[in-house]
Amino acid sequence: MKAVTVSVLKKELKQHTQEELIEICLKLAKFKKENKELLTYILFDSHDEDEYIREIKEEIDAGFSKLNHDSLYYVKKSIRKILRLLKKYVRYSKKKETEAELLLYFCTKYQELKASHQRSRQMMNIYERQLGMAKKAISTLHEDLQYDFVLLLEELGEN
Predict the structure, then answer these.
(1) Three-point CA angle 85, 91, 54, nearest 5°
(2) What is the secondary structure of the chain as a DSSP string?
(3) Closest alpha carbon to 56 in 30, 87, 27
(4) pLDDT tens digits for range 101-156
């Protein structure tokens, strides 16, 4: 089965009643966990972005507290898992301010890792990539917000 374009879906959805649309949304939510998470964000979290960011930061903290420091391999694997979750939540929000704040928070938490893990070339690449993405997101923001985020970047030791 081949998926149709978004414009075709939009036209088709306009032809349905409100009850039918509710049923369609519920079917989507039952089908896949990400659909349910996106609906949860749209219905409950999109109105209070600060609370949404706070909840994600708590998940990031939990992920960093559960790091297995026995091996660099496990640290990298856990860091990538945290980043996957972070990217998914940023994708739900689609706001550059949220993306910049969360990426900078991730970088701050990364700097709290053991020095031996930070010196790994692969770990440094992960960190630098996230820092670059944060800088890119910051560059698209309004000047006042940019200033606030640049101050956070300077705290991380970057310009």
Answers:
(1) 60
(2) -PPPPHHHHHHHHHTS-HHHHHHHHHHHHHH-HHHHHHHHIIIIITT-HHHHHHHHHHHHHHHHHT--TT-HHHHHHHHHHHHHHHHHHHHHH--HHHHHHHHHHHHHHHHTS-HHHHTSHHHHHHHHHHHHHHHHHHHTS-HHHHHHHHHHHHHHT--
(3) 87
(4) 999 999 999 988 877 777 788 989 999 999 999 999 999 988 888 888 888 888 87
Token duo for residue 68:
């297995």
Average pLDDT over residues 20-42: 90
- pTM as predicted: 0.85
Q: Which two tokens stand for residue 52?
A: 């949404």
For the chain, which residues make up each domain, given as ranges? 48-156
Six token digits for residue 48 = 């209070």
Q: How far apart are CA 21 and CA 34, in angstroms?
A: 18
| Amino acid identity at 21 | L
